[in-house]
Amino acid sequence: MIFDGFTSVLLYFIVFALSAVLLHLGDKKKLKSLTMLGLLIVVLFSAFRLNAGTDTATYRTFYEEVSTSTVQRSVDRLKSGEMEPFIIFTAMFGGFIGVGDWFMFAVFALITVYFLYKTTRKLDEKYYWVLYGVCLLMVYPNSFNTMRQMAAMSVLSYVLSVIIRSVIDGRRVGAVKIMLLSLFAISLHYSSIALLPILLVPYITRRFGYHKTFYIIGFLTILIVTLYKPALQILSSAGVLSPKHFATFINTEGSLLNFNFLICGFLAFISALHYRNHRNNNHLNKHNLIILMVGVAYSAIGFYSGYLGRLADFFWPFAILMLWQLISETKETPLKKVAIMYAVAIAYFILAFVIMGTNQLIPYDIIGG
């Protein structure tokens, strides 16, 4: 079944809103079943799509090839670095139990949605459902295209949120947990390796203070922008980066229309001015501002490499948190603050995914219709 443009947009809004509401009700009424249902709705919505999403057809072909190929062929894929281990094992297991490609889409959707939920809960225990719903509108649609990368980034977003909370509360973070989740993210998408240094930023901030960290990040921004090509060549020569990935990173042209750079840069600039003129002892906001500054550095690569520029998608949950913090400090009523937040998210969804057609979400179509 293929839905027309208006119905498709309405369907996205209904599914995302219902998911956020169910999570809120599940938390309010202490019913985990409602929370699970809220997550499951989005997972099924993604799993049973037919062609919605830029890379959906490519992933479907990949699943058919791997799920029906020999074990040796899958081992060769792993050795060549053609695809990450997790998606290969998922396709192999799906073929073993005899299910369709919807299984692979469901697994990656579950990882992405679950860790977005866990991230927002770490960042704001009271209004996490607001952040989660906004993430569904502004972040999650990217998973219909960059499925593996979005799953990996959701995992790392959670890891970073755990580290930030532990630094703020003065607690030790479980090193084994961080290491295992980081390895899991790498198994989902190799680009996660390039994001691992960000996990050190909260510790750097604690060691040098907020102001000195700004200068450190500014210096690192210059290094990242100027040395990314030589760094890639070194990694390729050392065999760390496969020839296929090296060619993809280098040959994918960047764009001046760099949403990640504009969003991270604008929010970081506004937040820096705001907290300079207003006394604010919220350590979460200060850490978040530093993270956004790092986001500016990573997103700057998008002017040169479109593929690597997508690394900055990682910073969206933290950009959304900063936007919510700025809105929260206004004198509006709580209901109006939530309405403003969702108005911004809906406007972005319409601009990016409907008008500009990013990720080819419209029209939405479903298997078996």
Q: Oligomeric state of the chains?
A: single chain
The succession of helices and strands, N to C, reads: HHHHHHHHHHHHHHHHHH
Unreliable sequence segments: none
Outline, from the CA principal axes? globular
Number of helical segments with 4 or more residues: 18
Structural class: mainly alpha
Considering DSSP H and I runs of 4 or more, what fraction of the residues is helical? over 70%
Beta-strand fraction estimate: under 5%
- Average pLDDT for all residues: 87
Summarize the structure in words.
The protein has 369 residues and is mostly helical. The chain is 73% helix and 0% strand. The chain contains 18 helices and no strands. The protein has helices spanning 5-28, 32-47, 56-68, 71-80, 85-97, 102-123, 128-138, 147-169, 175-188, 192-195, 201-208, 210-237, 243-251, 259-277, 283-300, 306-309, 316-328, 334-355. Helix 6 packs across helix 7. The longest helix is centred in the middle third of the chain and has 28 residues, at 210-237. The radius of gyration is 20 Å and the shape is globular. The model has no long low-confidence stretch (mean pLDDT 87).
Topology of this structure?
Blueprint: H1 5-28, H2 32-47, H3 56-68, H4 71-80, H5 85-97, H6 102-123, H7 128-138, H8 147-169, H9 175-188, H10 192-195, H11 201-208, H12 210-237, H13 243-251, H14 259-277, H15 283-300, H16 306-309, H17 316-328, H18 334-355
In short:
This protein has 369 residues and is mostly helical. It has helices at residues 5-28, 32-47, 56-68, 71-80, 85-97, 102-123, 128-138, 147-169, 175-188, 192-195, 201-208, 210-237, 243-251, 259-277, 283-300, 306-309, 316-328, 334-355.
